[in-house]
Amino acid sequence: MRLVKWDYVRWSRIKAVFNTHPASPVVFGKVNQFYIVFRVLWDESDQEVSREDLLNMELLINEELGSLSEYKNRKSVK
């Protein structure tokens, strides 16, 4: 999976597109200093988005934005 493009949208959110789901943009919300999946605008032409896909997407967007260490140290992982 690769991050194809991303852009800021309203209220500290980011919309991103990934190569495995090109017709289904993913909206991320900021929590503390990292981003998590807020919503997937799923399109029927794409395969279903699994929980593993969502976790990979979160890793990729946080790596791109320089917040990977904060994401890996979040409370839900400890």
Q: What is the compact description of this entry?
A:
The protein is an alpha+beta fold. The protein has helices at residues 51-64, 68-72, and strands at residues 3-9, 13-18, 21-31, 34-40.
Tags for this entry?
78 residues; alpha+beta; four-stranded antiparallel sheet; 4 strands; 24% helix; globular
What does this structure look like?
This protein is of the alpha+beta class and 78 residues long. The protein has one domain. It contains two helices and four strands, in the order E-E-E-E-H-H. The protein has helices at 51-64, 68-72, and strands spanning 3-9, 13-18, 21-31, 34-40. It has a four-stranded antiparallel sheet with strand order 1-2-3-4. Strand 1 (3-9) and strand 2 (13-18) form a beta hairpin. The radius of gyration is 12 Å and the shape is globular. The model has no long low-confidence stretch (mean pLDDT 94).
Count of helical stretches: 2
What is the structural class? alpha+beta
Radius of gyration, in angstroms, nearest whole number: 12 Å
Cα separation of the termini: 26 Å
The strand line-up of the biggest sheet is 1-2-3-4
Report the uncertain regions.
none
Order of helices and strands: EEEEHH
Number of strands: 4
Helix percentage? 10-25%
| Average pLDDT | 94
**Overall 3D geometry?**
globular
Q: Could you give a short account of the major beta sheet?
A: 4 strands, antiparallel
Number of domains: 1
Range of strand content: 35-45%
